[in-house]
């Protein structure tokens, strides 16, 4: 939780990607996802004042509008589609697109693509609690500055995580384990916020890009490893 908080604060990405796999080792899937959502909301709230100057309101609005369409799609997907099939498909997609980015393939930013990426991020947030990969993939293909990128993503996460948490509570419920465990993790998250702010000042743009690619590959490999035993008939 400490490392994930540092990563989220210094790059704008990574808390869900790094924390969720380890939370799933301890908690049931819904518990792990809701703990992740609660702590992610806290991180975004804590940094909101500092990132206001770096936000691009126009892009942020398009992400929010797109996500409102994606949120119910994610909930319906997780209710009707096998979770392993969902993880397998997402893992393969992220692996393919990350490879394309490493090979210097670039996406041009448009208003329509902003809406689409926001929708895709919203559907992933409400299904598996990981809204970050579509935004990472999208902005990795542009020349956006790291300050602007962090400002947009953290502000968007505050909205999408809050909406996802309320939606999950309404649809599947919550329990005391989720909230008690979240409270226990708060000191580590606060320490991570402080250390991440220090790291953000020194991180080089090139290193920033390498970190994003590494996170994307880690996410893809984790999702594939987590899903494959079901299809290989492993226990």
Automatic annotation (TrEMBL):
<dbReference type="InterPro" id="IPR052017">
    <property type="entry name" value="TSUP"/>
</dbReference>
<dbReference type="Pfam" id="PF01925">
    <property type="entry name" value="TauE"/>
</dbReference>
<comment type="similarity">
    <text>Belongs to the 4-toluene sulfonate uptake permease (TSUP) (TC 2.A.102) family.</text>
</comment>
<keyword id="KW-0813">Transport</keyword>
<feature type="transmembrane region" description="Helical">
    <location>
        <begin position="207"/>
        <end position="225"/>
    </location>
</feature>
<dbReference type="GO" id="GO:0005886">
    <property type="term" value="C:plasma membrane"/>
</dbReference>
<protein>
    <recommendedName>
        <fullName>Probable membrane transporter protein</fullName>
    </recommendedName>
</protein>
<feature type="transmembrane region" description="Helical">
    <location>
        <begin position="22"/>
        <end position="47"/>
    </location>
</feature>
<keyword id="KW-1133">Transmembrane helix</keyword>
<dbReference type="InterPro" id="IPR002781">
    <property type="entry name" value="TM_pro_TauE-like"/>
</dbReference>
<keyword id="KW-1003">Cell membrane</keyword>
<keyword id="KW-0472">Membrane</keyword>
<keyword id="KW-0812">Transmembrane</keyword>
<feature type="transmembrane region" description="Helical">
    <location>
        <begin position="59"/>
        <end position="79"/>
    </location>
</feature>
<feature type="transmembrane region" description="Helical">
    <location>
        <begin position="154"/>
        <end position="171"/>
    </location>
</feature>
<feature type="transmembrane region" description="Helical">
    <location>
        <begin position="85"/>
        <end position="103"/>
    </location>
</feature>
<feature type="transmembrane region" description="Helical">
    <location>
        <begin position="177"/>
        <end position="195"/>
    </location>
</feature>
